[in-house]
C-alpha cells in the first residue's frame, strides 16, 4: 500500500472453514481472524463451487491491483500537469485525422465507457465549434456531479387503516405484478399483524409489532404510495415512509437469509423512484452476493422446503438478476454474476395457490416436476408471475446483447484490415438474430383484456421493445465500420424509428398518468431524443412523414423531460442541454436545407458524404420544407410559455443557455479533445442507476 493511504477492501464471503463451523467470519487479510487464531488455511469457495481459492492469494491480487491503480493515478496526474492547455497544433492534427479514422474500426475511444456501450456515435451533436462558443459552460455544468437538494421531509407515522389498505392494495396490484419477490400472502399477513381487524390503527411504538415488521410495513408503504402520491391520491410523501423504515433497521439486517435479500430489494425498488443517496447497482450486487452464499444460483434449497418456498427462492434470485442486468448494462459495469454460473430455472408460471395445492397433494417431488406437468397441459391463462417471467426473458436477451457486443469490441481492436471488412457482416448477423429474438419476445407477451396497472398494458410492452431495440442498434452503430465516420444508413433508419417510437409511446403513457417518472425513464427519453437528432442530422434526404414524426418526437421528448425536471431538480443540467440541442439541430437542418453548400469546407464534405447514404424508405424520399417544419415547431413552444428556457434561467442562473439563432458546423470539431461528453455519458448512467456519492449507510451492517 503506497503512502499509507487507507482503502476499503472488498467484502469477501465466509471462508470454507467458518462456513462449515457456522462461525462468524470477518473480512481480515490475508486470513480471517478465526483461521489465523487456529492456524488453518483460509479458503474461499468459487461461484461455481468447483474450486477453492486461498484468501491470501486474493489479498496478493488486491495488493497488485492497488499498486497498478496508484501507478495509473500518478501517470494521469503527470499528463494533466504537462498537457493542461492543449496546443492548437494538437487540436488541428486530431481534427485533420478524423476522416482517416474511418473504415478500420470506426469506433470511438471513451475514457469512461467500453466500446459498444451505445452512446458514442451521437458525439458530433455536442462537438460543433459554434455551438460550444454560444454555450461555453453548458457541457461543463453537465459533467459535474448533480447535487441533490436535501428534502425537508420528516418520517411518517403509520397511516390510518383505510389509507394503509389503499397503499398495500396499490403495492400488490402494481409493483408486485412486475416484481413478486414477496409472497402475496406474506404481505397480507403483515398487514393483518400491523392492523388487526378488531382494533383501531396501532401506534408504531406498539410492542405488538416487531421492529422487522415495522421496517417492512414502512417500505411497502413507501413503494406502494409512489403512484398514489404523484397522482394526488395520497397525502403523505413516500420518502417519509422510507425514513421511518430506515429508523427501524436492525443490526442483523443481513443475517436473515432470504428475508435479508428481500429487505434490500425493497430499498432498491424504492430507489428507482426516489433518490436515496445509495447506488442501486451496489445494493443489487450485495443482494446477488447473498444469493450466491445461499446457493440460490444453483438451485440449492434447504431440506423440508415446500414447493412454494422453492418458487419464492427462485423469484428472489431472478429479481436480483433482473435489476443487476439492467443497472450494470446501463452503467457499463460488470454484472454481478455470469450467465454460465447460473444453474437454477425460472420460476414456474403459476399462482401461489396452485403451487401450494400441488405441494399439499404430495404428487410432485419438486418444483421442476410440477413445472413439466403444467407445461405439458398447456394454458394461455395469465398468472401471478406472467409479467415477471416476461421481464426475465427480456433481461436474458439484454444480457446476450451485451455479451455479444462486448466480445466483438474486444476482437475488433486486434483485428486486421481484412477482418474489418468482415466485421460488418458479423455485426449485421448479430443484429438480425437479436432483433428476431426481441420480436419473438414481444409476441409472447401476456394478453390482459382489462389491464389493472401499467405492467399489464400492451403499450408498456411496446415501450420495452423499443427501448431494447434502440439499445441493440446503438451498440451496433458504435462499433460497425463506417465511411468517413458516418454509420450505415440502414442502422440509422432502425435507430431513428426505435427512438421515435420510444419517445412517443412513453409521452402518451406519461400524459395519461399511466406511467410515473423515474431516472431510468428520464435517461431513456434523453438518449432517445439525442438519437433522433443525430439520425436526422446524419442523413440529408428523408420521406416527409419520417421527418415530421422525428420533429414531433423531439418536441414531445422535451415536453416530458421538462415536466420531469420540475420533480427531478437535479436533472436541470440535462434538460438545458437537450433544449439547446433541439434548437440547434432544427436551426441546422433548416440552414443546410436552404443553403447546403454555403458553409463550405467540412460541411460540404459532410454533405457529399451523406449523398451516398440511402433513404430511410427507398423510393419514397422527398425533400421537406424545413422552414415550415421549424416554424411550426417553434410555434408549439410559444404557445406553452412554461416550456421557455427563460424559466430554467431564472431558477438556475449559473447555467449557460443556447441561442436558437446560433449557427455552426455539425461536423467541424475536435471530436476527441473534450471529455465533457464522456463525463455526460457516464454521468447519465450514474444518474439513472447509481450515485457517484455513494452513501455508506450499509457499512456498519456489512462489517458487523
TrEMBL record:
Zn(2)-C6 fungal-type domain mapped to chain residues: 14-44
Subcellular location: Nucleus
Top-level taxonomic group: Eukaryota
SMART domains in the record: Fungal_trans, GAL4
GO MF entries: DNA-binding transcription factor activity, RNA polymerase II-specific; sequence-specific DNA binding; zinc ion binding
Keyword check for Transcription regulation: yes
Biological processes, Gene Ontology terms: DNA-templated transcription; positive regulation of transcription by RNA polymerase II
Protein name, per record: Zn(2)-C6 fungal-type domain-containing protein
Organism: Aspergillus wentii DTO 134E9
Organism lineage string: Eukaryota, Fungi, Dikarya, Ascomycota, Pezizomycotina
Amino acid at each position: 500500500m503506497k503512502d499509507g493511504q487507507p482503502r476499503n477492501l472488498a467484502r469477501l464471503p465466509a471462508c470454507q472453514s467458518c462456513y462449515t463451523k457456522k462461525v462468524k467470519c470477518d473480512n481480515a487479510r490475508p486470513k480471517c481472524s478465526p483461521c489465523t487464531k487456529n492456524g488453518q488455511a483460509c479458503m474461499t469457495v468459487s461461484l461455481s463451487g468447483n474450486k477453492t481459492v486461498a484468501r491470501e492469494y486474493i489479498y496478493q491480487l488486491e495488493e497488485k491491483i492497488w499498486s497498478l491503480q496508484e501507478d495509473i493515478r500518478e501517470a494521469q496526474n503527470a499528463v494533466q500537469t504537462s498537457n493542461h492547455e492543449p496546443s492548437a497544433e494538437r487540436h488541428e492534427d486530431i481534427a485533420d485525422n478524423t476522416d482517416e479514422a474511418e473504415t478500420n474500426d470506426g469506433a470511438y475511444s471513451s475514457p469512461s465507457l467500453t466500446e459498444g456501450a451505445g452512446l458514442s456515435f451521437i458525439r458530433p451533436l455536442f462537438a460543433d465549434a459554434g455551438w460550444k462558443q454560444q454555450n461555453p459552460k453548458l457541457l461543463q455544468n453537465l459533467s459535474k456531479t448533480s447535487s441533490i437538494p436535501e428534502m425537508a421531509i420528516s418520517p411518517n407515522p403509520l397511516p390510518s387503516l383505510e389509507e394503509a389498505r389503499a397503499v398495500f392494495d396499490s403495492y400488490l396490484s402494481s409493483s408486485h405484478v412486475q416484481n413478486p419477490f414477496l409472497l402475496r400472502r406474506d404481505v397480507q399477513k403483515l398487514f393483518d399483524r400491523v392492523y388487526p381487524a378488531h382494533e383501531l390503527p396501532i401506534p408504531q411504538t406498539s410492542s405488538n409489532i416487531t421492529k422487522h415488521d415495522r421496517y417492512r410495513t414502512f417500505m411497502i408503504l413507501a413503494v406502494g404510495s409512489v403512484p398514489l402520491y404523484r397522482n394526488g391520491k395520497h397525502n403523505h410523501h413516500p420518502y417519509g415512509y422510507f425514513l421511518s423504515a430506515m429508523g427501524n433497521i436492525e443490526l442483523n439486517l443481513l443475517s436473515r437469509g432470504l428475508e435479508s435479500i428481500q429487505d434490500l430489494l425493497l430499498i432498491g425498488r424504492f430507489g428507482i423512484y426516489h433518490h436515496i443517496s445509495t447506488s442501486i447497482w451496489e445494493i443489487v450486487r450485495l443482494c446477488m452476493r447473498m444469493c450466491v452464499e445461499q446457493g440460490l444460483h444453483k438451485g440449492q434449497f434447504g431440506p423440508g422446503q415446500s414447493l412454494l418456498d422453492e418458487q419464492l427462492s427462485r423469484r428472489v434470485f431472478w429479481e436480483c438478476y433482473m435489476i443487476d442486468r439492467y443497472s450494470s448494462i446501463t452503467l457499463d459495469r460488470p454484472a454481478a454474476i455470469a450467465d454460465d454460473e447460473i444453474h437454477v430455472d425460472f420460476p414456474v408460471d403459476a399462482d401461489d395457490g396452485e403451487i401450494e395445492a400441488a405441494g399439499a397433494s404430495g404428487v410432485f417431488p419438486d418444483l421442476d416436476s410440477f413445472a413439466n406437468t403444467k407445461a405439458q397441459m398447456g394454458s394461455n391463462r395469465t398468472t401471478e408471475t406472467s409479467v415477471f417471467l416476461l421481464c426475465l426473458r427480456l433481461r436474458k436477451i439484454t444480457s446476450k446483447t451485451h455479451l455479444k457486443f462486448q466480445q466483438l469490441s474486444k476482437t475488433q481492436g486486434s483485428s486486421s484490415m481484412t477482418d474489418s471488412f468482415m466485421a460488418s457482416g458479423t455485426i449485421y448477423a448479430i443484429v438480425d438474430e437479436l432483433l428476431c429474438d426481441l420480436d419473438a419476445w414481444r409476441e409472447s407477451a401476456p394478453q390482459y383484456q382489462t389491464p389493472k396497472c401499467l405492467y399489464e398494458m400492451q403499450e408498456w410492452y411496446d415501450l420495452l421493445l423499443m427501448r431494447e431495440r434502440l439499445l441493440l442498434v446503438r451498440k451496433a452503430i458504435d462499433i460497425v465500420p463506417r465511411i468517413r465516420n458516418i454509420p450505415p444508413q440502414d442502422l440509422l433508419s432502425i435507430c431513428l424509428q426505435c427512438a421515435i417510437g420510444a419517445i412517443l409511446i412513453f409521452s402518451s403513457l406519461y400524459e395519461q398518468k399511466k406511467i410515473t417518472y423515474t431516472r431510468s425513464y428520464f435517461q431513456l427519453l434523453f438518449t432517445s431524443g439525442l438519437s433522433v437528432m443525430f439520425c436526422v442530422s446524419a442523413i440529408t434526404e428523408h420521406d416527409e412523414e419520417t421527418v415530421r414524426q422525428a420533429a414531433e418526437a423531439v418536441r414531445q421528448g422535451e415536453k416530458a423531460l421538462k415536466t420531469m425536471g420540475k420533480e427531478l431538480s437535479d436533472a436541470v443540467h440535462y434538460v438545458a442541454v437537450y433544449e439547446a440541442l433541439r434548437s440547434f439541430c432544427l436551426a441546422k437542418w433548416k440552414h443546410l436545407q436552404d443553403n447546403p453548400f454555403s458553409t463550405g469546407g467540412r460541411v460540404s464534405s459532410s454533405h457529399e458524404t451523406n449523398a451516398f447514404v440511402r433513404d430511410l424508405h427507398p423510393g419514397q424520399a422527398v425533400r421537406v420544407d424545413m422552414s415550415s417544419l421549424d416554424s411550426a415547431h417553434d410555434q408549439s413552444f410559444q404557445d406553452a410559455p412554461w416550456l421557455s428556457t427563460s424559466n430554467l434561467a431564472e431558477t438556475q442562473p449559473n447555467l449557460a443557455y443556447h441561442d436558437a439563432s446560433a449557427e455552426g458546423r455539425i461536423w467541424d470539431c475536435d471530436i476527441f479533445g473534450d471529455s465533457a461528453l464522456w463525463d455526460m455519458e457516464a454521468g447519465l448512467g450514474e444518474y439513472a442507476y447509481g450515485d457517484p456519492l455513494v452513501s455508506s449507510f450499509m457499512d456498519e451492517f456489512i462489517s458487523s
